[in-house]
Amino acid sequence: MQLARPRPGYAAVSRWFLAAALAGLLVADLHVTTLHPWADLARLLDGLARPDFPSVEGWSVVYTVAFAVLGVGLGAGSGLLLAIPFARSRTIRLACAGLRAVHELFWALLLMQVFGLSATTGMLAIALPYAGICAKVYAEIIEEADLAAIRVLPVGTGTVSAFLYARLPEVAGRMRDYTLYRLECGLRSSLVLGFIGLPTMGFYLESAFRQGRYAEAGALLLVFYALIGTRRLWIRGWTVPLLLAAAPLALPPAIGNAAISASLARFLGHDIVPTPLRGAALAEPETWARLWSWLRPILTDQILPGTIQTLILAQIALAATALGALVLFPLTAKRFAGPLGRPLGRVLLVVVRSTPEYMLAYVCLQLLGPSMLPAILALALHNAGIVAYLMGRHADAIPYRADAPRGLNLYAYETVPRLYGQFLAYLLYRWELILRESAIFGILGVTTLGFYVDAAISELRLDVAVVLIAATALVTVAVDALSRGLRRSLRIDTLPTRLSGPAPVAG
């Protein structure tokens, strides 16, 4: 009789991840290279305290919203179509995994080679990964729905008809809630696209930071926070059709007049084809020998070191996220923060989680200089804000005993042990997302995979860039698969992991 292998427990998995993060700290570059980081921080805070609102370019706010609305609309619509056959088609699942594994900035850098700095680039850069994300989430929502209506359909009812009449009414509310949340994410993505030249708020924010105009930067940040904070007021069921109708009219004009068909043909037929295969005879062994000679230094000199640095950065950031969330979640729990502190704590965490990681990393880079430290701080702050916000909601749903202790004892012995499984579920779900962001931080100078992607695109070696982006996607998919495997092993794979997931149930 063969004994079953014991499953890892919460403590074992936590120790593994903490040990990996500590090992990463031994080799990570965490130096502060600026001469006066505190003085720079003081100037930034002064800019936030005395913002220069008249300097804010109004059209940048309009473009930020327009890109987000159209990009998310296109991505969510495509995701809904892909979600219907998602569970039955391995091809569609793999395609969606590939779409969502590539960061919006990577998509934008590639699309710019075809469409230039245009609205099409901005919309598709958001729509492509969001289509993969929405397809997965919508498919999960459909699978979790009640099947009672399906059972009473006539025999021979088609798949589309069955979905429209039996499934969609059941899942429409949850899909709507998730799509509206995804629109908030789209606003963050739209802002970040400004850092590569598209005329959203990020373009003016980067310019203001680079030139030391902190009052303008502070105004832009506050306007963006107001945009996110008031999302529930101006993004409603009845306003979405109006936004979708108005957004195309508010798009910026294209920069340049490239012939799109010719650019697309050149991009697909020449630019991204590996150099040794361009015009070569594929049946000749020498062609494949040249391809290996071309690919080998990319693997050894770029993909391997870039992957190692990406994993190190992601692992340290994940551990920092965990520690930050454990410290911060009491700020939003009524048993810890009280009636006065809880609203302030929620505002703080909403601001932190609403700030895109890339923008946080850019700000930290200006304050601390180029190293892994700004990226780790940015990832930890943003993701700890998200996890802490959600953990606070779960803490509020705990039915404490009438004689429950208070203070540290309530936290350490009553609350954290009861929430730890949910806590690990959130962290493992964020692991893939942290890895995606870690790769893209290479554009800011950290030697992750994005560093080599940015260099290849800058040198117009698009064939190399595509190989590097494909490697990034494979690493992300592998981490996602490992994360799902660990969640199943820990029996926490059915717990909610999305910010817009179902509200916690007391129990």
TrEMBL record:
Transmembrane intervals: 61-84, 105-128, 148-166, 187-205, 211-228, 240-260, 312-332, 433-452, 464-482
An annotated GO cellular component: plasma membrane
Membrane in keyword set: yes
InterPro entries, A to Z: MetI-like_sf (IPR035906)
SUPFAM superfamilies to which the protein is assigned, alphabetical: MetI-like
Keyword annotations from UniProtKB, A to Z: Cell membrane, Membrane, Transmembrane, Transmembrane helix, Transport
Transmembrane in keyword set: yes
Membrane topology type: Multi-pass membrane protein
Subcellular location: Cell membrane
Protein name (Swiss-Prot/TrEMBL): Phosphonate transport system permease protein
Species assigned in the record: Methylobacterium pseudosasicola
